[in-house]
Amino acid sequence: MRKLLGIVVLVLMWCSNGFAEDVKDYQISGISIGDSLLNFYSENEIKNLDIVNYRKNTDEFFMLTGAEDKSQEYETLSFHVKKNDNQYIIHAISGSFFYKKNFDKCLDKKEKIVNSLKSDFGNLKSNEYDYKYDWDLKSIAYISDFEFKNGVVRVYCVNWSEVTENERDFDDNLSISIQIDYFTKWLNNRT
Questions:
Q1: What are the sequence ranges of the domains in the chain?
Q2: Burial class of residue 118 (count of CB atoms within 10 Å of its CB; 0-12, 13-18, 19+)
Q3: 3-class DSSP string for 68-115
Q4: Model-level pTM?
């Protein structure tokens, strides 16, 4: 049975038989790692999403962002897929909320979610750390990772610098993501 990660209810639903070790058992808005986006969106809807490439040297994975959350749990959904994959198989999924000029609210909600997940995930501990973005070293993400045998559930708030907010039209945000292990390694090792 798959489990649902939901920010709105701040509860992770799990099977009665206990804790799952496979990150693929969890969902955001009914969508899991390994699913095809075509099961949830038309090809036209997918092609109208914004595309973000992380690396200049490789485009193995890219992010499709700005997807409508049909379950209305999140303000937007994002998906990471591989280049030239006509099935749009999902390797990472995120649900996000935005906090224009209200970062304290973001941190408060993150803390509630992390505490709920600590309880729900049983023996998994969260790894807490900060990440400063290379382009200005003033934008910072406050991250909590729950590591599974084959991936990670990540909860994070990003406090964008004023310059980044103005130049890139970014708002502070809270996201929950589910990532398969090989994608997380790729993401963490990008140059």
A1: 3-188
A2: middle
A3: CCCCCCCCEEEEEEECCCCCCECCEEEEEEEECCCHHHHHHHHHHHHH
A4: 0.83
